[in-house]
Write a structure and sequence with these properties.
Elements lengths: L2 H11 L4 H30 L7 H12 L2 H23 L2 H5 L5 H34 L7 H14 L1 H13 L3 H21 L23 H25 L4
Helix pairs in contact: 1-6, 2-3, 2-4, 2-6, 4-6, 4-8, 4-9, 6-7, 6-8, 8-10
Length: 248
């Protein structure tokens, strides 16, 4: 069985699952929050804006820093992986799945890619929601397609280590809540790491997305390197465990 077929099956299994409700509810909530924020505080935000900042810049910053999207995105990724693996646990389908003519490496990789794909959708929907707010508010400046595209692209890349970690976690625990709790704790701890121990940020993947808005002095290039290293480590450890653990 081809890898792309396995990935398609992973997505198909979520056809009537909670994943779609989650992917719609979170961006809808952030869009509504930003719309209300700008309805109430738009004039104030313009008056207090930094030199050269446009309405689109302010919208991105409000979403990322004030609303906390940059801080909580890793937790959302963890929830997505918990939902993916909970489908197998709730239907007790591990034996059936692993009896298919497919290597365990391919099955584990398909889970990782499917979770990352859904996470990408979440990021894209959030960005589209921000654009919608800007159009509804009729910002006077031209739409900043490039900056918003770069913003989404950075997030898509910088969630990879967290995705690898939660793919491993979600397989390791039959109770999906455990992975979600660990993700929440990781996000809470990231605020401590970012503001009190910034020298540790580069090895703490839950903090990476906080710096993807481009308005902070964090060394994103260095984080990008460690993001790749940690992805390989987490994926490798998870695959090693998946190949040896009796999941039947």
């Amino acid at each position: 069985m081809k890898l792309h077929t396995l990935i398609f099956l992973e997505c198909y299994k979520q056809k009537k699952g909670l994943i779609w409700l989650f992917l719609l509810a979170i961006p809808a909530g952030t869009t509504m929050a930003m719309f209300l924020d700008f309805q109430i505080r738009y004039d104030y935000l313009l008056d207090t804006a930094g030199l050269g900042q446009t309405s689109w810049d302010l919208l991105l910053m409000e979403n990322h820093r004030v609303l906390g999207w940059g801080m909580f995105l890793p937790m959302f990724v963890g929830i997505i992986y918990a939902i993916l693996y909970q489908v197998e646990e709730s239907h007790n389908s591990w034996k059936q799945l692993l009896s298919l003519p497919v290597r365990r490496e391919e099955f584990y990789l398909s889970k990782f890619v499917a979770g990352w794909f859904f996470s990408v959708l979440l990021i894209v929907l959030n960005v589209l929601g921000l654009m919608l707010v800007g159009f509804i508010m009729d910002f006077p400046e031209a739409m900043e397609w490039k900056s918003y595209g770069i913003y989404a692209g950075k997030q898509i890349v910088m969630i990879l280590a967290v995705a690898g970690f939660h793919n491993w976690l979600s397989f390791s625990f039959k109770n999906s809540v455990i992975g979600i709790v660990i993700g929440f704790a990781g996000v809470i701890l990231s605020s401590i790491v970012i503001f009190m121990f910034p020298e540790w940020v580069k090895i703490y993947p839950y903090a990476y997305t906080f710096y993807t808005d481009g308005y902070d002095g964090g060394n994103l290039a260095e984080m990008f390197f460690y993001n790749g290293v940690l992805l390989v480590v987490f994926f490798g450890l998870g695959l090693w465990q998946f190949k040896r653990r009796d999941v039947l």
